[in-house]
Design goal:
single chain, 435 residues, alpha/beta, D-Maltodextrin-Binding Protein, domain 2, two-stranded antiparallel sheet, 18 helices, globular, Multiple sugar transport system substrate-binding protein, signal
Length: 435
């Protein structure tokens, strides 16, 4: 057994033990190897349960690739961003494979030339099957027509609901946004619990609001992001609906600074009947140690609006290759191994939602998820968009701009004026980014 080199910079979460072996293909030769064919592949990964699962299996890759040592640096999100900003900007070749957030920094990295073009790589191996990856996540890891990353972890917005409350009131599970509003109103008027909750913070709410926006037929901007479109009739309908659901049918005196932990806690404490948020949060609601209603949680696809059910279906993380790496062939061989159908199935079996369509149609792949949730995720994966926030470089500033009307709608303010200001501000923002 060859010893593998694992350098961990920060402590991750608990390591999940997996036992099934994998076969790895042979890599092609790269420049940059050591004497005698020895090569060190430098891999930077985020603190995540996905990382803790796969890093325990890296010795298998090394054993199948004689002379290769994989050196892993594992960092928290902030440390990861800091390292990338410094090293990639300096043109380092000390990073080969990199775990990154496509919707947070993907456009910046691709535009700056940090990410290698993988378009030819992903089409070379029919057995690895690039076509098996869901279209939404693939869209999010493609820049100007070039594939720059392979999605590894996904999430979709779904509808969580209280099965006991709906049953006692004779309410059917809402399949449309109109039905969701009617049911939320009915429950709120009963006076026992609130009808609906979701994130309310200016920035935090944007990702969850996006599914309402898409499903009503709206978007943040036109396709090439030269024109802001948040003042369209469709966007206005989405802002107003999201605001009514929380402001009129949500908890009394609801905070306008809630991110997911706050909103999820209200549902988990039995104070709300409906909650829309990421599929990845379900254990906060469905495990007895986290929730007082753990055995009364139902799951459904995101309700349809005028444009159908169009939730976000996004890759929270992807793998890319440093464009300045001297080992691109070996790096992609490693990426391909990490994202093979077999490895992806193993990771999803451990509870990490994956970007391959095949694992969602495999009973083994869905066994660790509640049956209703797996079905909702599968549906959302087919109909969803591959982004949940504006596709810009300065994501944080954009979210603050487009999120302002959400708070105004929740508090019952002048939504038209808030939208008009946000439209003007976002157009100026886009003009500046495109200049």
């Amino acid at each position: 057994m060859k010893h593998r080199s694992i350098r961990v910079a920060t402590t991750g979460v608990a390591i999940a033990a997996l036992t099934t072996g994998l076969l790895a293909g042979c890599s092609s030769a790269d420049s940059g190897g050591g004497e005698g064919g020895e090569q060190t592949l430098r891999v930077t990964l985020a603190n995540h349960v996905w990382t803790d699962i796969v890093k325990d299996k890296i010795s298998e890759f090394e054993e199948a690739h004689e002379g290769v040592t994989v050196e892993v640096t594992q960092l928290g999100e902030d440390q990861l961003s800091d390292q990338y900003n410094v090293k990639l900007n300096a043109g380092t070749d000390e990073i080969d494979v990199m775990m990154y957030r496509p919707l947070q920094e993907g456009k910046l990295f691709a535009q700056n030339g940090y990410l290698a073009d993988l378009s030819d790589y992903v089409t070379q191996d029919a057995e690895w099957d690039w076509d098996d990856f869901q279209s939404g996540p693939v869209e999010a890891t493609t820049f100007d027509g070039a594939v720059v990353g392979v999605p590894i972890i996904t999430e979709q917005e779904v509808l969580y609901y209280r099965t006991d409350v709906l049953e006692s009131l004779g309410i059917a599970v809402p399949s449309t946004l109109e039905e969701l509003e009617a049911a939320s109103k009915q429950i709120k008027e009963q006076g026992q619990i609130a009808g609906f909750v979701a994130r309310t913070g200016v920035s935090a709410a944007v990702t969850q609001f996006s599914s309402f926006l898409f499903s009503e037929g709206g978007d943040f901007a036109n396709k090439d992001y030269t024109k802001a479109t948040i003042d369209s009739d469709e966007a206005k309908a989405a802002y107003e609906l999201y605001g009514r659901l929380i402001g009129q049918y949500g908890p009394d005196n609801v905070s306008t600074d809630m991110s997911w932990p706050d909103a999820a806690a209200l549902f988990a404490q039995g104070q709300v009947a409906f909650y829309t948020d990421a599929s990845s949060l379900y254990q906060n609601l469905a495990l007895e140690e986290n929730s007082t209603v753990w055995d009364k949680v139902g799951y459904a696809p995101f309700p349809s609006g005028k444009a159908g059910s169009v939730p976000y279906n996004v890759p929270s993380w992807a793998l890319g290759i440093n464009n300045d790496s001297s080992k691109k062939d070996l790096s992609f061989e490693f990426v391909k191994w990490l994202t093979s159908p077999e490895m992806t199935l193993e990771v999803q079996t451990a509870g990490v939602p994956a970007a391959r369509a095949s694992v969602w149609s495999d009973p083994q792949g869905t066994a660790s998820f509640p049956e209703q949730l797996a079905e909702a995720i599968s549906i959302g994966s087919e109909t969803g968009f591959g982004y949940d926030r504006p596709l810009v470089i300065n994501v944080a500033e954009a979210r603050e701009i487009v999120g302002a009307p959400i708070v105004e709608a929740i508090t019952g303010g002048d939504v038209d004026a808030a939208i008009a200001k946000a439209q003007a501000d976002f157009q100026a923002f886009l003009d500046d980014e495109n200049s």
